[in-house]
């Protein structure tokens, strides 16, 4: 089949009076490609153009056509990529049939195109041929088809061409380049020879001159016979020359260099025969034309001969725009082009009228069209305020002067919010726009909120009025913004004048500095109202310019705004009457669970009420936590690892040093109050945070890391300090928009990295929420760390999770781009920024899993760590991790928590995502009695009397709500730490502390009274359920399935005498895996919808194993060519306990083989064998439900719809399978969904929707890898060199056959239906 290079374009909105030549020239000009043929419609306003080559930039051609009219009509161009029919007219009545046409067009002579349908109408002598490939139409129309007959006409089948089931006569609708066809409808005036010759000029590269103007230098070719040919071919006969013309064809410049062909087209009548000597006339037998050398003609032969007839007068109108006409007049177009014999007129709306002889009008119209096509119009946007300014004569003169300096001829007009610019050529128009925009400028000045009252004063309005009178500028005031628009110089001068005005009359801003808690005390409503009343007394002296205040506790400032005098008085009053009267006290909280109680709604409300009643500020702060001991007392299992050498403690400050520091702090604070200086918020320190000589060392915490594999990337969750991560090459920090390292996690990084990190970060521009800043490693950060990524965050608001998602994704992409192998994230924003931990955990896991399963799988990043400190936040991340594994426990590095290496962390009291956060009580509360409780402190600020009352009431509150209880249960002795883990998680979530002693079987519960009572009930229920489970025969198997490793899982299945249903089955068989019992009678099953995660996993498996390049290939793939993919519409789970029971017993046998060492993954036997495709996708949601160690895989089985019920009920039955299978009569499954799709319907009746396919669990077991086609009645013998399926010498046989006969797909065949369980039924469509 040939590959067509031609292309069809549908052209609409053609003027009925447009000539063929003008349309051909127009299309070639617009597209830049040669037009081979044009096919017209019935009304000649629509046509189809056949181009010789593909149009390279069709979109530009469409835009160019919209900007260039043809005789006043804007043509619409569109590609006909879907035209797959042609119509053939004037077929001979005999010898041509539909079969003949099909055979002809499918033959090599016609291009070898496959015919889809041929409709033959013998009476009308025409046929319609439809092709499979639309690209056949332009290719066929480009060829000559002499075998169909010389009179046969071929046209594209276009609906717009049809009218009453009739097609326009191709003879009058088909125009071939280089020809001038004759049309019947509608009647047009005869074509002057000039148009025909102009086409010849462009195609053949010739020039046309009158015969009498030629000379010997013109290189003419005389006729061979010396005379022009006669109609009958007899040169002896004489014929009249009065109605003929002779032209001289000489070479001219090639196409493209001819800008104006009119001067080369001079037409003159041929002189009479008696004035031409026979020697000067020769006959060209090859061309059939007469050419005269003109050597003996006198120069004025024509004027001396017969008188020429007078040429007709005509009138032509060209529709253009007023701007274009003005530009051509400005350029002197008509003065240089129009002859004096022509009359030219113009109208207001841009219409040009020519009146004169036909030839003169025709030439000038052609030139006018060509010139108008060179004109370009551009729009430059301007604001509405500039509209009136640009109408001024001074502004217009300045703009025109700028155009003159650039030597650009431009016509410009202002209309609405744009300036229309008309220039000769697009380049000049764009340059004119640039010149104009460079002249104009816009600036704005933001007025301080406290100075906005000045905008309405008469003085300020007078300043604005004077500036607009003196300068070409428009000044508008919109609330707090002053906008300057006009010419650049005037705008700058006006802006400077306004800035100077406000500088002189500015409202000053000053700040009083104090500690964070002191300022929060001043922010409580009662105290704030007192400050407001004090300032009102000062404002009463000047009601227009008032002093205002704003308390910023986080920045350590109380900001005052107003006139200088008012601000000075306000600072002195507030400092004396408020700040210096503040006293403070604190209450330590040491009881387990009480810190959480005070953070929850009830306790927090009680603290707030106590403080509000006594006009005090109350704040709860967590200071430090200690490492808890093991929650379960098991002396026989405890393993102790050698502890790393402890860092040398810092030298304690002496008494003299402490005194010096205390004096320095007090002196600094007093100096700031005395001088009343303005201090930036970043430089402020809280009153209670005077720099100390030591940093608080957080205790060591031990948590076993939890892992998740996705796409070859290991995702780890660990509870630790991120700045102590010794393995990651990238650490992620969280900062505010000011990029300061003073609070939360940022301060932890500052303590670890030192001031070098702070300097590197502060050197960058302030960030916006959602940006990620990058600095190099510094200070004491681990040597493995190469870079630190700083996420710019702010206080949480609904919808911020979208920005969080974008930041995490950006960090991962940056790490991959920089070729980093690992990256560690904190729990972003879960501390002081108040991001909800469950939402953060879900968002971060979504982004990480998507990255790991997509572009990250091929990147350098192989390890992604989530390092979380705060226990509650860690619990949220843990729950999300478990949900990603379908509720199963995450895999641990080691089974015993005590064996995990220790990690240290340093923190301060204001930590965000690392260090001991306020919720850290949960860690100790869920760990044990020997664990020191979380130490938190309640700070109280207010007047001396109020602080004393609040302190006493808080102490009474703590005593009232603390309680201890204990439970004794003998079953505790038989439980392991993993068995007790759910109870500990429950305690952690509830916020109570438990200590379990397995020797005494005592559980001690401590915490807030109501929670202790609630947890006691839950614990009793938990132990009751464990007593029942321990008495069940499936206990050991269930423990192995839930908590054991894969080796434990296989060992438990090998030893078990029961079969448990999968854990994700419905309630009837739900599981910690409910036991399946054998039953007699019909096998019942149910089809149930799967959850979203399982549906996503199944869909991903089908789509990733779809091999589009193999679709339609192979013996069983007939009729599938052209399908690119499949779309899953429904996924259902088949729950058939009896079928799964058969499958489970065979799986048990294979586990026993694995335990005996006789069964291994087949690809480990021979390294050249490829793994099963479905096992290489990294779909963890499916991979964890199968055992690859015994060659258990998910494979595809396609079948027709009528077989679905039977397979769901009794499984896939190989006994009724096709006996012609390549490897015998067995159950065939595939690793590619495109292979299974071949069997979803009959080859002769392919469907597109509602197709079915099973995703089966298949136990391949001991695999026989076959590299040739061979029919097996069962798998062959395992004896060395035997491989005989009917062997009677050996006892052991393979379990399955993998057929790899060098075909398109591998075949996976089992010969026992118990080895194949059809677990998921997928409904899909082909696309």
TrEMBL record:
Residues 1088-1327 form the PARP catalytic domain. InterPro entries: Macro_dom (IPR002589), Macro_dom-like (IPR043472), Mono-ARTD/PARP (IPR052056), Nucleotide-bd_a/b_plait_sf (IPR012677), Poly(ADP-ribose)pol_cat_dom (IPR012317). Residues 183-193 have a biased composition (Pro residues). Residues 292-308 have a biased composition (Low complexity). It comes from the Eukaryota. The keyword Nucleus applies. Pfam families: Macro, PARP, RRM_PARP14_3. It is found in: Nucleus. Keywords: Glycosyltransferase, NAD, Nucleus, Transferase. One of its GO terms (molecular function) is transcription corepressor activity. Residues 702-885 form the Macro domain. SUPFAM superfamilies: ADP-ribosylation, Macro domain-like. Residues 277-287 have a biased composition (Basic and acidic residues). Its EC number is 2.4.2.-. Residues 894-911 have a biased composition (Acidic residues). Residues 165-195, 211-320, 626-657, 887-928 are annotated as: Disordered. One of its GO terms (biological process) is negative regulation of gene expression. It is an enzyme of class 2 (transferase). Its main location: nucleus. GO terms for cellular component: cytoplasm; nucleus. This is Poly [ADP-ribose] polymerase. It comes from Lingula anatina. The lineage of its organism: Eukaryota, Metazoa, Spiralia, Lophotrochozoa, Brachiopoda. The gene is LOC106164469.
């Amino acid at each position: 089949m040939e590959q067509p290079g031609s292309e069809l374009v549908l052209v609409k909105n053609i003027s009925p009076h447009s000539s063929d030549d003008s349309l051909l020239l127009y299309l070639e000009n617009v597209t830049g490609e040669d037009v081979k043929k044009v096919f017209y419609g019935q009304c000649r306003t629509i046509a189809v153009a056949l181009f010789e080559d593909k149009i390279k930039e069709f979109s530009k051609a469409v835009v160019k056509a919209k900007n260039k009219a043809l005789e006043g009509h804007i043509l619409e161009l569109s590609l006909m990529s879907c035209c797959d029919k042609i119509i053939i007219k004037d077929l001979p009545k005999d010898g041509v049939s539909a079969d003949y046409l099909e055979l002809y067009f499918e033959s090599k002579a016609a291009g070898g195109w496959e015919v889809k349908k041929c409709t033959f109408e013998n009476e009308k002598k025409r046929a319609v041929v439809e092709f499979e490939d639309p690209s056949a139409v332009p290719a066929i129309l480009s060829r000559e088809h002499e075998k169909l007959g010389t009179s046969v006409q071929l046209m594209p089948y276009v609906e717009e061409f049809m009218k009453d089931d009739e097609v326009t006569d191709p003879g009058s609708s088909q125009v071939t380049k280089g020809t001038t066809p004759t049309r019947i409808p509608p009647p047009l005036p005869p074509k002057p020879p000039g148009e025909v010759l102009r086409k010849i000029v462009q195609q053949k590269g010739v020039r046309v001159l009158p015969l009498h103007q030629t000379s010997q230098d013109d290189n003419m070719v005389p006729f061979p016979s010396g005379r022009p040919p006669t109609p009958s071919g007899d040169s002896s006969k004489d014929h009249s020359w009065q109605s003929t013309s002779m032209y001289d064809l000489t070479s001219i410049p090639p196409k493209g260099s001819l800008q104006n062909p009119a001067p080369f087209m001079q037409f003159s009548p041929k002189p009479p025969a008696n004035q031409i000597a026979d020697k000067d006339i020769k006959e060209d037998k090859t061309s059939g034309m007469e050419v005269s050398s003109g050597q003996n003609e006198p120069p004025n032969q024509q004027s001396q001969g017969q008188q020429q007839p007078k040429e007709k007068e005509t009138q032509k109108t060209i529709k253009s725009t007023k701007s274009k006409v003005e530009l051509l007049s400005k350029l002197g177009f008509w003065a240089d082009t129009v002859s004096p014999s022509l009359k030219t007129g113009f109208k207001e709306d841009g219409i040009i009228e020519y009146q004169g002889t036909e030839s003169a009008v025709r030439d000038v119209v052609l030139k006018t069209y060509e010139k108008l096509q060179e004109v370009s119009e551009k729009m430059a946007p301007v604001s509405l305020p500039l509209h009136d300014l640009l109408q001024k004569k001074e502004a217009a003169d300045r703009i025109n002067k700028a155009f003159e300096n650039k030597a650009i001829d431009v016509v410009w007009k202002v209309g609405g919010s744009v300036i229309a610019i008309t220039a000769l050529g697009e380049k000049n128009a764009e340059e004119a726009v640039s010149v104009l925009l460079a002249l104009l400028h816009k600036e704005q000045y933001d007025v301080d909120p406290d100075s906005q009252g000045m905008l309405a004063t008469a003085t300020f309005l007078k300043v604005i009025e004077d500036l607009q009178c003196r300068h070409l500028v428009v000044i508008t005031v919109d609330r707090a913004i002053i906008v300057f628009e006009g010419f650049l110089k005037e705008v700058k001068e006006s802006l400077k004048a306004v800035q100077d005005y406000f500088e002189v009359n500015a409202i000053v801003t000053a700040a009083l500095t104090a500690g964070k808690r002191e300022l929060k005390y001043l922010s409580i409503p009662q105290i704030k109202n007192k400050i407001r009343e004090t300032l009102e007394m000062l404002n009463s002296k000047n009601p227009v310019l008032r002093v205002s205040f704003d308390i910023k506790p986080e920045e350590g400032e109380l900001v005052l705004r107003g006139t200088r005098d008012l601000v000075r008085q306000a600072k002195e009053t507030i400092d004396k009457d408020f700040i210096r009267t503040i006293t403070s006290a604190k209450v330590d909280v040491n009881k387990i669970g009480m810190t959480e109680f005070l953070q929850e709604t009830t306790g927090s409300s009680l603290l707030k009420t106590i403080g509000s009643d006594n006009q005090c500020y109350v704040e709860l702060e967590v200071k430090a936590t200690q490492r808890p001991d093991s929650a379960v007392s098991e002396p026989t299992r405890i393993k102790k690892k050698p502890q790393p050498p402890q860092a040398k403690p810092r030298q304690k400050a002496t008494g003299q040093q402490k005194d010096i520091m205390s004096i320095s702090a007090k002196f600094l604070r007093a100096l700031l109050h005395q001088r009343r200086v303005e201090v930036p918020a970043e430089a402020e320190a809280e009153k209670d945070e005077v720099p100390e000589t030591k940093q608080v060392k957080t205790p060591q915490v031990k948590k076993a890391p939890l892992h998740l594999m996705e796409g070859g990337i290991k995702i780890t969750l660990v509870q630790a300090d991120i700045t102590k991560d010794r393995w990651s090459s990238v650490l992620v920090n969280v900062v505010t928009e000011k990029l300061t390292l003073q609070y939360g996690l940022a301060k932890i990084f500052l303590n670890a990295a030192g001031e070098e990190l702070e300097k590197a970060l502060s050197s960058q521009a302030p960030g916006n929420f959602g940006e990620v800043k990058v600095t190099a490693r510094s200070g004491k950060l681990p040597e493995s760390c190469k870079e630190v990524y700083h996420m710019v965050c702010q206080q949480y608001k609904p919808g911020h999770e979208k920005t969080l998602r974008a930041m995490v994704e950006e960090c991962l992409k940056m790490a991959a781009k920089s070729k980093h192998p690992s990256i560690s994230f904190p729990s972003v924003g879960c501390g002081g920024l108040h991001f909800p931990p469950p939402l953060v955990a879900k968002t971060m896991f979504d982004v990480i899993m998507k990255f790991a399963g997509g572009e990250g799988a091929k990147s350098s990043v192989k390890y992604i760590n989530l390092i979380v400190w705060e226990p509650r936040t860690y619990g949220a991340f843990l729950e999300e991790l478990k949900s990603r594994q379908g509720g199963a426990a995450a895999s641990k590095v080691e089974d015993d928590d005590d064996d995990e290496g220790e990690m240290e962390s340093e923190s301060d009291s204001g930590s965000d995502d690392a260090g001991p956060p306020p919720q850290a009580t949960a860690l100790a509360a869920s760990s044990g009695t020997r664990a020191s409780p979380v130490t938190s402190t309640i700070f109280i600020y207010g007047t001396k009397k109020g602080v004393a009352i609040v302190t006493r009431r808080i102490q009474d509150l703590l005593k009232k709500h603390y309680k201890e209880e204990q439970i004794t249960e003998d079953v505790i002795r038989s439980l392991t730490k993993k068995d007790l883990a759910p109870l500990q998680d429950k305690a952690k979530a509830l916020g109570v502390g438990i200590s379990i002693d397995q020797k005494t079987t005592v559980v001690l519960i401590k915490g807030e009274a109501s929670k202790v009572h609630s947890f006691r009930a839950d614990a009793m229920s938990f132990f009751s359920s464990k007593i029942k489970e321990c008495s069940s025969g499936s206990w050991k198997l269930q423990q192995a399935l839930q908590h054991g490793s894969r080796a434990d899982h296989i060992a438990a299945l090998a030893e078990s005498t029961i079969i448990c249903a999968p854990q994700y089955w419905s309630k009837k068989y739900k599981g910690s895996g409910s036991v399946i019992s054998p039953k007699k009678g019909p096998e019942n099953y149910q089809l149930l919808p799967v959850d979203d995660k399982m549906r996503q996993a199944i869909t991903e498996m089908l789509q990733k194993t779809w091999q589009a390049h193999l679709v339609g290939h192979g013996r069983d793939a007939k009729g599938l060519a052209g399908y690119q993919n499949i779309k899953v519409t429904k996924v259902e789970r088949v729950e058939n306990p009896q079928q799964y029971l058969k499958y489970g017993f065979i799986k048990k046998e294979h586990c026993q083989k694995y335990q005996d060492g006789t069964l291994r993954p087949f690809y480990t036997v021979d390294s050249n064998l490829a793994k099963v495709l479905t096992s290489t996708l990294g779909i963890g949601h499916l991979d964890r439900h199968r055992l690859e160690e015994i060659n258990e895989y998910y494979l595809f089985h396609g079948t027709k719809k009528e077989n679905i019920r039977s397979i769901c009920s009794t499984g896939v039955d190989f006994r009724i399978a096709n006996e012609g299978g390549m490897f015998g009569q067995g159950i065939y499954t595939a690793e590619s969904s495109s292979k299974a799709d071949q069997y979803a319907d009959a080859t002769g009746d392919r469907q597109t929707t509602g197709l079915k396919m099973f995703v089966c669990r298949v136990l391949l077991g001991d695999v026989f890898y076959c590299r040739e086609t061979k029919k097996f009645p069962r798998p062959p013998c395992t004896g060395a060199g035997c491989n005989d399926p009917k062997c009677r010498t050996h006892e052991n046989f393979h379990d399955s056959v993998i057929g790899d006969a060098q075909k398109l797909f591998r075949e996976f065949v089992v010969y026992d239906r118990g080895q194949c369980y059809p677990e998921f039924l997928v409904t899909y469509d082909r696309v």
